[in-house]
Amino acid sequence: MFELLGIPPQVLFGQLLLGLINGSFYAVLSLGLAVIFGLLNIINFTHGAQYMLGAFGAWMLLNYLGVGYWWAVFIVPPIVGVTGIVLERVLIRRLYHLDHLYGLLLTFGLALIIVGFFRQFFGVSGLPYPPPPLLNGGYNLGFMYLPNSRAWVIVASLIVCLATWFIIEKTRLGAYLRAATENPTMVGAFGINVPLLVTLTYGFGVALAGFAGVLAAPIYAVNPNMGADLIIVVFAVVVIGGMGSILGSILTGFGLGLIEGLTRVFYPEGSAVVIFVIMALVLLVKPAGLFGRSV
Amino acid sequence: MTTDTNPIAMAAITSVGAAGMPRHHLAIFAALFVFLVAAPFLLYPIFVMKVLCFALFACAFNLLLGFGGLLSFGHAAYFGMASYVSAHAAKVWGLTPELAIIAGTLVAAVLGLAIGSLAIRRHGIYFAMVTLAFAQMIYFFSLQAAFTGGEDGIQAVPRGHLFGLIDLRSSEVLYFFVLAIFFAGILLIYRIIHSPFGQVLKAIRENEPRAISLGYRVNRYKLAVFVLSATLAGVAGATKAIVFQLASLTDVYWTMSGEVVLMTLLGGMGTVFGPIVGAAVIVTMQNYLATFGDWVTIGQGIIFVVAVLSFREGIVGVLAKWIRKPL
């Protein structure tokens, strides 16, 4: 049995795997924030609550309708996205002519309302979500044991991240989107329905949060507070990466997850704050963020 | 964050009293003073002290948001950390309450300097996210550090003897100590707002590139107001720890940062008296609705949404429009 720096390999790779899973959630959530920010210029504080909605959506489908996990993966994100579209059409839309900070305050208030309702009706103790049979078990890779449920989270979020990147960077719809980010008035003049594009973009970003929530349901307990602390870490991830680049968000998310996992091995006390420390260092050295364009 | 009122133009048409303060401001301060001196005999003193601590907290926050135009979403860090240090100083080191409060305040000032100097490197919503993230870091630190007592917090903090002489165990006596701190804080903030420094801040808030082109070192002004705001938030937090004899994780959590934003927004950001009104409304709401559990959170969320969508001037801002004078 060999050891790396005095750490048994099972521990090291186990924590790296956990870090990669956290990184998957950081990547999907910060990607959603970046997509929304690019076009709407607001920071979606409701994102954590919408992630929680995704997890509760999966839980409700299973417990009220008997619909299983694999259906939930496809059904829940669009539903959460539609709730986001309603919010955008009814409320957020009214703030576009104002300072962007009002968007932050509005979505913060919405998050309080949504989380408050779920705490009132479901309590804070957390509800179990049994993983589907396919995700039980795992593979022995020789140096570590890889549970299927964890491998699935990483693979699924990678696929979704890369698909998002493909849509935005390589398709015609994505070209409209990028153009509208640069100059919405000009894009509107070419006959493209920019308000509709904005609404759909918000819905898509929110659906990404819902998707992350579904992925989280079997791993973490389904809990109204599950998104609140996570979203603040994701904000730090976004500050570190900058929101200029889609691939940048993905890389930063996974990378920071790995760093967090490594910290948990070598200096466990620091694992909760390491991302914030990195944020401080990035602000000192490269204030615009690693992939950011402007301050 | 622009306001409809133009303070300079309004100051010109407002009659000015003896102390260089517009007469109606002087009258409001006098009325507030009379009311607050009488308040402990009419209301529950602990409740009024809670309002005073949060009002000072909100006024300190408003100095940054309303006059500096900087939205910090992490003011709980300074409030809560000062509260921990003050509680620790009074309980473990056995300092007198005024020294404990000073210790807490100093720590808040240093923290404000450290976080502020990093946060002002970004603008707008990034600034808000950076301050929020650092505040969360302080929260995790408080959760793990030994002296904060983790989930229990620091309980049974002695109120002690003011200057080693006056026994503060009686809430009525303590009240006047807190009242003195509150008024000193509010008047200091008033002075800062109406100083040349405050005028430069408003210029930066309205048009930062123009302020830079006029030769102002904008980042120094921003950092100065950030540290001042964090320090005064620290005074409020440190005092709160002595009043309630408790410092806990609630004070450093992001919900506290959100509450102070709500108080300022509801009362009227960029007004002198708005945050006091906002704090009074929110604390009263929390007090009377405490038994309804999470409905308080839902209520606060609804107030947020309504205030942002259709009540952006806040209570005092609307009053100021009616009487056509800055409040």
UniProtKB/TrEMBL annotation, chain A:
GO terms for molecular function: transmembrane transporter activity. Coiled coil: none annotated. Its main location: membrane. It comes from the Bacteria. One of its GO terms (biological process) is amino acid transport. The chain crosses the membrane at residues 12-35, 42-62, 68-92, 104-129, 149-168, 230-259, 265-285. It is found in: Cell membrane. GO terms for cellular component: plasma membrane. It holds the Pfam family BPD_transp_2. Keywords: Amino-acid transport, Cell membrane, Membrane, Transmembrane, Transmembrane helix, Transport. It is a multi-pass membrane protein. CDD domains: TM_PBP1_LivH_like. PANTHER family: ABC TRANSPORTER ATP-BINDING PROTEIN (PTHR11795:SF442), BRANCHED-CHAIN AMINO ACID TRANSPORT SYSTEM PERMEASE PROTEIN LIVH (PTHR11795). Belongs to the binding-protein-dependent transport system permease family. LivHM subfamily. This is Branched-chain amino acid transport system permease protein. It comes from Mesorhizobium muleiense. The lineage of its organism: Bacteria, Pseudomonadati, Pseudomonadota, Alphaproteobacteria, Hyphomicrobiales.
UniProtKB/TrEMBL annotation, chain B:
The keyword RNA-binding does not apply. Signal peptide: none annotated. Coiled coil: none annotated. Its main location: membrane. The keyword Cell membrane applies. GO terms for molecular function: branched-chain amino acid transmembrane transporter activity. One of its GO terms (cellular component) is plasma membrane. It is found in: Cell membrane. Keywords: Cell membrane, Membrane, Transmembrane, Transmembrane helix. It is a multi-pass membrane protein. InterPro entries: ABC_transp_permease, LivM-like. The chain crosses the membrane at residues 26-44, 51-79, 99-118, 125-147, 173-193, 223-248, 260-283, 295-323. CDD domains: TM_PBP1_LivM_like. This is Branched-chain amino acid transport system permease protein. The lineage of its organism: Bacteria, Pseudomonadati, Pseudomonadota, Alphaproteobacteria, Hyphomicrobiales.
